[in-house]
Amino acid sequence: MNPPEKNQNDVKHIQKLYDLTFEATNRCVQCGYCLAVCPTYETLGKESASPRGRVNLVRLASLGKIDLIKHLASPIDLCIGCRACEVACPVGVPYGHILDSAKEVIATKEEEKQKPALSYTVKKALLKHLFPYPKRLRTLGNMTWFYQKSCVYKIVRQTKVIEKISKPLAQLETALPLLESPVKRLKPSTVIPAKGDMKVRIAFFTGCVTDAMMHRINRLSIELLSLIGCEVVIPKEQNCCGALHIHQGMSSMAKDLAKKNIEAFEKSGATYYVNNAGGCGATLREYDQLLKDEEEWRERARNFVNKSKDISEIIVKYGPLPFKREWKGIITYQDSCHLRNVQGVYKEPRVLLQSIPGANYTEMEDSTKCCASGGIYNILHFNESMKILNNKMEKVKKSKATTIVTANPGCLLQLRQGVKKNNKASEIEVVHLVEVLARMCSIE
């Protein structure tokens, strides 16, 4: 392969990639420990779909030996970003940093094209004009609730009109749980008192998609926190965490969102900032890395990170929960990649599930391997996502579980797709950890 010809703009991008990643990519010794845990390497079976392969490609691109768009963009885009390779790596290669940096440089180069790709234009429009605006997302959620309640919902399902437009969106639509009435959505600035003696003040992160489309999970989360003695406040000015923006290389937007969230949560006076979405929580816990080059935000971001917790951590710390029912059936747990691999939280969800009266908990084979939700990965790379999901469903079947529990909304929808595809919807329930705990505490 001959080195690509470079103009002044190319040199600028290559230099930026070099500055951001070269030292990190040189830490990779190409040992291959990452191969066994990489979902795309398992299904695609080629070196460019492995972590070490992608690291090597980024290194070559940073040296100007391969083209950023022609040779690097596709392998990078096909990575789910589960970051299991970071946990497996014996020398601590910061793969997440390398991946996000490569995406940022590629996105910048794409932006400078006279005619950017349509997919990039659509993604940018959504990330710029929808996700940073909670009210717009709530309106979308309200419209979805109305759609599900109307006769249009049945007509759309019967005619399969969405499938004719987009098969990925059609499967996502069928996996979406029935939304709770918008009147039950808790409003920003609301303070929910602790039941009994107050142990701690919590600021709750509602998330963007969860708040819009699965606000029942948020409501149940807050009721559980209140039940164990937490006073819960919902900061008014909070926003999208910025995860989707980072994953699409739009770090400047992500930084703006991070700053708004830091300001909003600082005002809460809370001891902890709690979330119930593994993907969001991972981004919140890396705000210090995102803003490390901005002196006025560095310390504030570090303090924010130190206070950010997953809800399972808080329930274990301040529980136990007052269970009132017994569970029937076999429960298994699918790890949220970002909850486990980035936040390091994997014991707490299992401890909580195993504490449920009557629960027959079984550990699923490869429960730590990705289900291929990956934010919007299952929409952008539907076929690759379904291959990985098919592997996951084989493990589900072997577990003989009647309930699959996860701790991330994206994983929840992806696993629901898998259950429906395998005609197991009447046999296997897919629920968020919060839903299981609330049900056992007689909270509906």
UniProtKB/TrEMBL annotation:
Pfam families: CCG (PF02754), Fer4_8 (PF13183)
EC top class, as a word: oxidoreductase
Obligatory cofactor(s): [4Fe-4S] cluster
Reaction it catalyzes: (R)-lactate + A = pyruvate + AH2; glycolate + A = glyoxylate + AH2
Alphabetized GO MF terms: 4 iron, 4 sulfur cluster binding; glycolate dehydrogenase activity; metal ion binding
Cofactor note as given: Binds 2 [4Fe-4S] clusters.
InterPro entries, per database record: 4Fe4S_Fe-S-bd (IPR017896), 4Fe4S_Fe_S_CS (IPR017900), Cys_rich_dom (IPR004017), Glc_ox_4Fe-4S (IPR012257), Helical_ferredxn (IPR009051)
Enzyme Commission numbers on file: 1.1.99.14
All residue ranges annotated as the 4Fe-4S ferredoxin-type domain in the record: 18-49, 69-101
Alphabetically ordered keywords of this record: 4Fe-4S, Electron transport, Iron, Iron-sulfur, Metal-binding, Repeat, Transport
Function: Component of a complex that catalyzes the oxidation of glycolate to glyoxylate.
Name used for this protein in its record: Glycolate oxidase iron-sulfur subunit
Organism of derivation: Vulcanibacillus modesticaldus
Lineage, highest ranks first: Bacteria, Bacillati, Bacillota, Bacilli, Bacillales
